[in-house]
């Protein structure tokens, strides 16, 4: 009885490991509160830089048009 139980347990463990490799979780990776705040700050900094860049491009385009 003991030997059968041991064999059954080892086979069951092996089966569970194979199933766990097949069925990975689709849950997204956890992002800590500090990391989220850092990402938001970076996004805000990018958003501030983009309008400045577009404003300087528009000014250069306007000055080029007025020169013509």
From TrEMBL:
Region (Disordered): 15-68
Annotated Basic residues bias: 15-27
Stretches with biased composition (Acidic residues): 54-68
Domain of life where this protein originates: Bacteria
Ranges of Low complexity composition bias in the record: 42-53
Record's compositionally biased regions (Basic and acidic residues): 32-41
Protein name: DUF2986 domain-containing protein
